[in-house]
């Protein structure tokens, strides 16, 4: 190769300044020869850009539009029900506190995931979740089937101080949830908003939502009392516990 390079280099000769040879194009373009239908987009970069963008988008459009239009594409599972008002409030606390930055709620259909967390998540389980809490970031374990895994008192102690339940845990403490009272004033608008997004709350349910909320909260506070924990049913932690205990319970699957 070296020999070849040297021989080739020796054959050439040095040209100091080469004369420009290409003639300038005439300012006015006069098409010569036969005109085809595609002459319309020739020499018009913007037009060509828009046209090609449209052509490229066609594939996407053909995939997307039917998916949005056909209702059966959203797999509903009849046993999946909307959250109760207390759970809905708890969910918003979950979102507010950024629990999703460490916890996913999506068990993937792999054997090791199913063995660790339980039945893998179905799309139809999240149809009433706005916004969904799937995610892939797991500093902590997946919570898609946390409901019923522990008693309420476990969650109570864990939220107050995670290391009390899981020694060495890096999960932060959430002591303010035990002091702050749940804002019942927002229940109505939250139900309303969810209905706008397609969650089938009965017409006029807003009016009695807070009664249901209080009843469920009192029940949880009562249950905690049995475990020697005294807390007002009005605290935010009660709503969060209600939410956590609901997760993944809509579809009943035998845990082997
Ligand atoms: C900095 C990351 C981080 C944040 C933020 C976080 N967690 Fe955790 N979480 C963890 C880790 C790590 C574990 C595993 C150790 C443990 O149980 O404490 C865990 C465990 C849990 C468990 C027990 C799961 C199981 O199957 O044993 C629950 C329930 C839980 N977290 C709920 C929450 C909730 C609710 C929030 C928001 C209020 C939250 N976490 C915020 C990291 C986090």
Query: Percent range for helical residues?
Result: 40-55%
**Total E-strand runs:** 0
Q: CATH homologous superfamily of the domain at 85-246, by name?
A: Cytochrome c-like domain
Strand content: under 5%
CATH arch. level architecture of the domain at 85-246 = Orthogonal Bundle
Ligand kinds = heme C
In DSSP terms (H or I, runs of 4 or more residues), the helix count works out at: 9
The largest sheet is:
none
Distance between the termini: 69 Å
> What are the secondary-structure elements, in order, as H or E?
HHHHHHHHH
Mean pLDDT score: 91
Give the CATH topology of the domain at 85-246.
Cytochrome Bc1 Complex, Chain D, domain 2
Q: Which ranges are low-confidence, i.e. pLDDT below 50, for 5 or more consecutive residues?
A: none
Radius of gyration: 32 Å
- Overall outline: elongated
CATH class of the domain at 85-246: Mainly Alpha
């Amino acid at each position: 190769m070296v020999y070849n390079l040297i021989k080739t280099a020796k054959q050439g000769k040095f040209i100091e300044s080469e004369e420009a040879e290409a003639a300038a194009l005439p300012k006015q373009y006069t098409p010569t020869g036969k005109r085809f239908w595609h002459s319309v987009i020739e020499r018009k970069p913007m037009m060509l850009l828009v046209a090609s963008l449209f052509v490229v988008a066609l594939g996407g459009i053909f995939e997307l539009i039917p998916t949005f239009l056909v209702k059966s594409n959203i797999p509903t599972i009849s046993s999946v029900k909307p959250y109760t008002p207390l759970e809905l409030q708890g969910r918003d606390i979950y979102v507010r506190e950024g629990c999703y930055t460490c916890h996913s709620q999506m068990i993937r259909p792999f054997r090791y995931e199913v063995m660790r967390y339980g039945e893998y998540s179905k799309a139809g389980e999240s149809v009433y979740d706005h916004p969904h809490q799937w995610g892939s970031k797991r500093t902590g374990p997946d919570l898609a089937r946390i409901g019923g895994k522990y008693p309420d008192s476990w969650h109570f102690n864990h939220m107050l101080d995670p290391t009390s339940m899981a020694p060495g845990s890096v999960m932060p403490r959430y002591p303010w949830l035990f002091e702050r009272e749940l804002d019942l004033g927002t229940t109505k608008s939250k139900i309303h908003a969810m209905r706008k997004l397609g969650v089938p709350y009965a017409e006029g349910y807003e009016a009695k939502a807070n009664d249901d909320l209080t009843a469920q909260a009192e029940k949880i506070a009562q249950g905690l009392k049995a475990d020697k924990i005294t807390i007002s049913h009005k605290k935010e932690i009660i709503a969060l516990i209600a939410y956590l205990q609901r997760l993944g319970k809509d579809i009943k699957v035998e845990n082997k």
